[in-house]
Every structure is written in C-alpha cells, then in structure tokens.
Amino acid sequence: xxxxxxxxxxxxxxxxxxxxxxxxxxxxxxxxxxxxxxxxxxxxxxxxxxxxxxxxxxxxxxxxxxxxxxxxxxxxxxxxxxxxxxxxxxxxxxxxxxxxxxxxxxxxxxxxxxxxxxxxxx
Length: 122
Prior knowledge:
With about 120 residues, the chain is of the alpha+beta class. It is built from two helices and five strands, in the order E-E-E-H-H-E-E.
C-alpha cells in the first residue's frame, strides 16, 4: 500500500552473482540496481545510488521516490537466502546520509541499517 511519507527503517540489499562473475546489487526498498565485477565495488556503487536517492527525495519533498519497493519475487529470494544463512557481512552496515535543512530535524545526518543476502550464481 502506498504511503505519502517514507517509512524506511532498514535497507535490504540482495546480491546476485552471475555465472560470468559479475555481481548485481539490488536495494529492494527503493528498487535500485547496479552491477560490478566484485561484490565490494557493487556494494559501493549501490550505497552511492541509494544515498543520492534518499537525499534527493528528502531535499525536494518527493517522498514517493522512497516508496518504490522491488517486485515481490526479489523479496522472496532475499527472505529465503537470508533465512538459509547466506548473509553478506557488509563493509558499511550503516548507510549515512544528509538530512536537508527543510526537513525539521535536530540533527543534520541520519542513517539506516543495511541487511544483505548473497545468492548463488544465476
């Protein structure tokens, strides 16, 4: 169900390793996807894209941009993978982002925890 205000409490990342060796990184909460040759680079790229999306949405008041979850199939894959213990130990388990001055907050930065799961080659 669509909510006009963001309700992000944690970010859920799904990493898919392709048979070619490329790693696809997917933020399920915002349906943002990127890829790289190594998981650390994929994580770095995804963190950058997610940070820009959050900061831009908050800065412009476009909260709908924070309510764009990935299709259910990816959430199912994440849940099954996470429950099976294939957890990705992130280099950056907390993503920090700037709170724009127009958002009434006492602090200028905030953060969200990152939960990540890694699937086998597809």
